[in-house]
Amino acid sequence: MQRTFITLxxxxxxxxxxxxxxxxxxxxxxxxxxxxxxxxxxxxxxxAPDEAKTGDDAAQQVDGNTAVAQDNTxxxxxSDPSDNTDIAAPAADASATPKTIVKLPAMVAVGxxxxxxxxxxDHADIPDDAYxxxxxxxxxxAAIKQIELAHYSNVVYEHDPYIVQRYIDDMPGIKGSxxxxxxxxxxxxxxxxxxxxxxxxxxxxxxxDNEQSATFAVTIRTQEEQPRDVxxxxxxxxxxLGRYDVQLDQAMENLLGEPLEVRFSQLAxxxxxxxxxxxxxxxxxxxxxxxxxxxxxxxxxxxEGFNPTRQQVIDDxxxxxxxxxxxPALWPTDTSVEEKYELVWAAMSNRYFTxxxxxxxxxxxxxxxxxxxxxxxxxxxATLRPIVQTGExxxxxxxxxxxxSAPLSLANKADTASFNLHLYAGPKAPDVIDADPQYQALGLxxxxxxxxxxxxTFLTFSWLAEGLLGFLxxxxxxxxxxxxxxxxxxxxxxLVLHPxxxxxxxxxxxxxxxxxxxxxxxQKIKEKYKDDSSKQQAEMMKLYKEKGVNPAAMGLGCLxxxxxxxxxxxxxxxxxxxxxxxxxPAFFDVFHTIGEAIGVQWNFLSDLSTSDNFLPLPVDIxxxxxxFNILPICMALVFFFQQKFMSSAQSTATMTDQQRQQQAMMKxxxxxxxxxxxxxxxxxxxxxxxxxxxAGILDSYFVRKHLKDQEESGELFKPKTPKKGGFMERxxxxxxxxxxQLEQQKKRVENKRKGKKGPRKP
Length: 762
Fold this sequence. Notes:
Beta-galactosidase, Chain A, domain 5, 6-stranded antiparallel beta sheet, disordered N terminus
């Protein structure tokens, strides 16, 4: 038995080695029988398939140079993740290839000579009719090296163009660079050819009054004694004046004359840059889609169900890697196929910026329907999926999206096929997106999300946050300062909510004073009927009615506070995510002006999207950062006086010992806990909370004064004639009815004990 088991193990090992050997050599002969492979496990140093190595070697032979570009960015190494996964094809493997499609010998991609750094556009901070960005390219994979925005800076008071996309250098487990929009693989008649490790030829770089462009090309050639050209791939990037679009036209031309079935695979966006925030990593992924069954006109773009956080994508990929499977596709999914959704765009976003790929929209010239019509991104696409690499620390985790085309047929020589994509790379700014007809047609406004997530999700109404932002922008347009506009917004919101707030505070304070005055009589009733809870309740309700006290006032007094919660949460989300506040100073930048006058750099309230930076610190202190912030300290003081002011107006006479302890705990927790939590919060938000708390104290002062006047005039405790059939009357009737039922039940029990039949319940 043992010998048989050992023999079986040897046979299994031999078959496994045979399979591995045949798979490793599939790129040098006929087409492989399986063109799908899982992602490598995160952090692993996987070797690339033979096709990728062949492509890299050929690039070096043609150029005669080492694989380092002139712009000092390295070529994608053999272990580049773009070569670790195959094109996910919807069709079967190579054995299902039609008979008219010939099997080709081994092929290699041939590029061109090295040239100087290539770029289009401009990143100068000049008028709006100029270029909005500068795009720098690398010849490796004919890809984008980085995108710099002209009107957004990394730092305040300096023009340091914000880099919304750039190559990822040295991903964990990867020896090389990963470039946005890089061409990675082309599968021709079932055989893969690497494109990422090839230095593409710069064919053309041109400019006119309205746009600039750069065109790269590569030729796929057989590795024979007499090589034949098979396919030519051309990639043209265009940048139009005044837009945040990078337009990419991709054409594949049949040079062989034989029928070709081509599948093209490329990278899309790489990870968005992220800055440490007290609210954690706010990067997300969004899929915008149409639901034809709900909206036949395709006028609405939805994102529900296809908006995972970045961490969710990383976790799903890690779980798949543990099972030696590929990361789950972002599109299509079982749900999208079942519901017949149509993908319009796919976006990766951080707090203020986004990148979104989409198919070029079409111009509609009809008189009855002018404008633009979005195209389906998934119409020429097989899959959209992530490649995830994780490191020892979560800060080393990286994501890059991969787009695989559907099969493209090129039957004859000179036949061409296209796989065109556009990339929006810019701010999540309503003024930018809503003003552009193409972005409107795409529904790209959906990338602007004012949502804190977590338990606040269901109370965060985007329409409310957008309305508050619109009003804040209106105030700023008249006041010319965002800090003053925030304070005016506080006053307006307080005035709007004043009736609810006033009623809430009056009800609670009045109830507290009334209960304090009635406490001696309440104690007598409790003592007199301590053994009869129903009678005790009925007598207390009778006392409340005689004295005009509404016992539901305490609960009803808190109701307006809960009704205000969506407004506070919407304000919180709006002030955190509004790009309009980014790098905007408060109070006409007076503090920076004072600093310049005395020869120091004082950035206090110079950027409402970050902490207030009252005083810089020489070192970075955990939980504090590199600056001392004064607004959270002011918030703690204001909260303390507000809690003390409010608690002094409430009676503790009717409270239990536990309720008194809870009140004392809240009195100290609010002034300590909230400032600690919000110490590194945006100064625009803390400024609003300080101003709102001060306004709340002022509001409470007038309410208390009103109550004092009523108390002195005798109106406060004057019994009010209850409305017939009102709440108090219904409660009293219910209590009396309950008491009557309990008395009848008690009599029946006593009669039963005496052996008598008690009266029936009416």
